[in-house]
Each structure stands twice: as C-alpha cells, then as structure tokens.
Amino acid sequence: MAEAIMGFTIFKSHIHNSSCLHARRSEVKQSSRLPNQHSTSTLFNGSHKVKEGKFKRASLCKVNGLPDWPLMAVIVEQMEGQRDLITIKSVGHLSDEAIKNVYSWYIMFTVWGCLFYGSMKDPYYDSETYRGDGGDGTGNWIYEKQDAMEAEAREALWREELIEEIELKVGGLKELEEAGKKEEVVK
Amino acid sequence: MASTTTTYHLVPNPNHLVLTNPLSNHVSFLRKQKNNVSHITNLKKKNPWLDPFDDGEDPEMEYGSLFVDGKQEEDPRLPDDPNNRFGFLKFPAGYSVELASLPLKVRGDVRNCCCVVSGGVYENLLFFPIIQLLKDRYPGVKIDIVASPRGKQTYEMNKNVRYATAYDPDDELPEPAEYTDMVGLLKNRYYDMVLSTKLAGLGHAAFLFMTTARDRVSYVYPNVNAAGAGLLLSETFIPDTLNLSEGGYNMYHQMAEWLGKPFRDVPRHIVSPLRVSLSRKVKEVVKEKYTKAGAEKGKYVVIHGIESDSKASMQSRGDLDSLLPIQVWAEIAYTIREFTPVFVIPHEKERENVQEYLEDASIVFITTPGQLAALINDSAGVIATNTVAIQLANAREKPSIALFSSEEKAEKFVPEAEEKKCIVIPSKTGKLIDIDVEAVKNAVETFNVSLAFV
C-alpha cells in the first residue's frame, strides 16, 4: 500500500488534452516534491499558472470539452506477477456559483410549481364568480354582463312605454272613429 | 371692486345682449324675474383660461341656410350603401370622419352624455327631470349614469338611461384601483358632455377632466374649496348652500336652467315634471309580495317612513329629520278604515317592531325604489314622511299625505302640493316627532272620503 501512496500523482483533467500534456507533466514533475502546497494552490482553482512563454498562447485559448472537474488521484497498485491495478479517483465538486444556480433553480421551480399546479385545482375557477359572468376558461378574464343586462332591461322598458303610448293613441283614435260613426247613424 | 366692474358688463337692456351674444354670456333668468331690476349685473364672467382665442360667436354667421341649425337629429347614422356588399356607410361628399367631433362642437351637439350624480336614492330620483330635459334638448343622446350603489338602483325606473355604473362619487378616499378604473371606463366611452352634481373642488374637477369629455359641467363648492376647479371645467354652477339636497324638489335648478338655455333657433326648454316608468317584471314581483302580505290591488294605502337605522330608508340628505317611530304610525294607521295599511319596512328586523304594535298588519319588505314605485302604483294612496315615497306618489299621480318637519321643508320638497293631489301636514315645532297626530287623522278622514269617491 505504501508503494501505492508513494505513486500518487496529482493531475488535472487536462491530462486528456494532448496539447497540454507535456507542459503538465513537466509542471507536475517539478511540483511533485511538495504535494501539499500544490494541492492547495492549483487543485481547485481551475486555472493554473503557465510559466513558459511558449505555451502561454496555447493555454489561453484552450477549450474544455468536459466539465472542469478536478481529477483527484490516480492510484496505481503494483502487485507482483500481475498487471497494475489503476484506480482513477476524481471529485465531482461544484463551484459556489454552480451550487447557487442549482438552488435558485430549485426554489424557482418550487414556487412556480406551487402556483401552477396549485391553481389547476382551484375551486375559484369553477365557481360562480368566475364562470357566472361568462368566463369561459379560454383566458383569465371576467366579463361584466350586469351592465349590459341592465341596459337591455331599460331598453325593453322604453319599448313597453312606447307601445303603451301608441295603444293609448290608437284607442283614442278608435273612440273618435266610433263616435263619428254613431253620429252618422244618428243622422 | 374696481376689478369686478371692469370684467362684468353693465347692460341696460338684457334682451339686446341675448340676441347678439347668446353663447358666451349667460343671463340668470330667475334673478331677473325675482328682482325685476333693469340693470343686470350678474352676467357670468367668461373664463379666459379655458380658451384665450374665444372671442364669442361670430355675429355675422348665418345659420339655417348655410349651416345646419336647430336641434340635432335623433339618428345621426348615415345611410347604408345598398350596392356595397359589406354594408358600408355611404359618407356624403365632404364628410370626414376624422373631423366629426369638430362640427359636433360647432353645432353644440351631444351624442354621449355622462351624469355623475351625487347622493342617494332621493337625489337620483330628483335627477330624472334633468335626464328628460337632456333627452328633449338633445334628441338621440345616449345618457349614462355614474352614481353610488344605492342611487344606481333608481335607474331601474328610467327608460332614458343606457348604462348606470355604481361608483360612489362622494367617497372622500376612493380605492386607487377603483378610481383609475373608473377614469379609464369613462374615458373609453368618449363622452361629449359630463354633468356632475357633486360639489367639485380641484379633485373632482380633475376626475371629470380626465374623462376627456368636451363639455365638463359641474357644481362647484360655493366657498374657497372651489379654487382651481374652474380651470378644469367648462361650466360651473354655484349652489345656494353647501348641501345641494336642501334645495328640495328643484335642487338642480341651476343645471336645469343652463341645460334648457335657448341656443340659436332652439327655444328655452322647460323642465318637465318628475315621471317614472315601471317594468312589467317589477310589477309582477311586487304584486306577489303585497298579495302575500294580505293586500289587494287598489285597496291599500302605502305607509312609508318608519324609523330605522337601515340605509334603505330613502330619505333626502337635505331633510334628515324625516322618519317617524312606529308608535306614531300605529296611531295613524288605526284611523284608516276602508283601506288596508301596508307598512313598508326597509329591513327585516323591523318586522317584529311593527308586529308589536299592530299584530295583523300587512308588512312588505322593500329596499329598492323600483319596487316601492310599483307598490305605490298599485295602491290607492300613500301616507309618508319626506321620503322617496312621496315623490313617487306624485310621479305616478297617486293621492298622498306628506308629513313634514316644517313648512319650509314642505314647500321646498313638494311645491304646488295641491296640483299633485298631495296633502301636506307640517309639524309646528320644526321637529317631525312633534307632529300633530290629530291633524293627520283628520287628513286621513278626508283621504278616506276622497278616495272612496274616486
């Protein structure tokens, strides 16, 4: 086991990135003497210092296909007479910002979900106050029909009165006519 | 004093002025009749802030031959084009829809009118003659009402009104949402004229101004509270007192006078007496009610004005001492023999009180003025204090006995009582409770006799 521990090497996930591979190895070799310092300085920082001017540009425009999860360790167990047993250990660690994003999404979904799914079974939308005035469920709109109904009632009243007036007039005319006829008969 | 003499005109002959300049100047006719003064000095000052370029009517303008004169047409709809399959209106040559409001303004036509009526049922009922006047003066006008929820119920009886909207203009501090909603509503209806009977200060004037109506006509406070209101209104009336309702039956006389003013070829319009119309439905409902209470059509007398803390007591704001306790009513009711007295209660809790004094009394629970009018319409007569019932009885030409707290009040609220078949009994002390019950009983006797003959 001691051998295995001695074989600890700290890597970045860029290890797969062939263009940076050499630079990384040289760096790692330099710093492997002081593993503690190294881990604190570059393990979780995401970015690393590149000292060689030659690779400055390459590291500036590097593209990560995979998320920037730091690879913690590669354990190589060497057993005699057998092939090496290689275990790659990595830490799936989210940054503060990512954690914040996840939680805010969670809260937003919860609030929206409470409102949305809660309103699906709201008795208000099936009540008389909502449906009574003609809300047909197509939009959240309440149509006021009371005013129109009252106006119609008043119009009907106006017509009624008009008919009454006309009847009165017609009645008067008929009476006049009848009186005229009677007079003729008398004559 | 010097400033007033410069702005007011001293006119030796008022007729001369009326002929030359009937629009911008306004002569108070009532004052002229009363005082009989040759020098009329109470000409209304024109507000130069409203239109600095308004120099009055062109005296050389000829109406009648070149321009349309007289009242507006009842149906301004242009004729349909029979050849057009969409039924578009055929616009006459030179008629531009975009400018339609301009000739309306020049002619003084009013197509849409809004009346903001302050007060309760009584004030709204007395506004009916004004509505009739509007309808007569501007044929085909669509009249909408904005009144308090209680007052709005009155318009069940008015056939001349289109929309009645419930919004309390007397509310000192309306809910902002409600207020803006109402402003938007009124603005969207594009009124030509807005009449208001609320005494306007700057606030109410701003409300009326925001409706963007062409003519904004309102009563204003008779004191300093009216400051600034005149800027936003095109015509203002100053009431006699702070409480408009104290004017009684003719409480809106300034407005009536202005609305009925002669205009070019249109002569002065006189206010017609109060009339109400009743729909068949209401009549049926009320008939069911009073038959259930044990009264027959034409054989009962309506008693209205029982003291109660209900809001439906239908008294005027100008006469708050106008309800009698049930004891007094019971005394009066004993003397009615040939007819069934029907007590109108404004709240169900009053039923017990009435039954306490009169066990087998016919009691009808009525809160809306429309139903009360229907009840009165089917009755033989009305005995009431100064409530809407008296006005309704006069409107339906039913004989009535009116109990008033004082003679002045009686004169104001029921002028020309004899013509209206109304017997007025005022209290001598100025308090309604001290009313002479004997006198009322005597009146009821004569009432019995007169009704029996009828």
UniProtKB/TrEMBL annotation, chain A:
Signal peptide: none
GO biological process, one term: photosynthetic electron transport in photosystem I
GO cellular component terms listed in the entry, alphabetical order: chloroplast thylakoid membrane; NAD(P)H dehydrogenase complex (plastoquinone)
InterPro entries listed in its UniProt record: PNSB4
UniProt protein name: Photosynthetic NDH subcomplex B 4
Organism annotation: Lupinus luteus
UniProtKB/TrEMBL annotation, chain B:
GO biological process, one term: photosynthetic electron transport in photosystem I
Domain of life: Eukaryota
This protein's GO CC annotations: chloroplast; NAD(P)H dehydrogenase complex (plastoquinone)
Signal peptide: none
SUPFAM superfamilies in UniProt: UDP-Glycosyltransferase/glycogen phosphorylase (SSF53756)
Classification via InterPro entries: PNSB1
Protein name, entry field: Photosynthetic NDH subunit of subcomplex B 1, chloroplastic
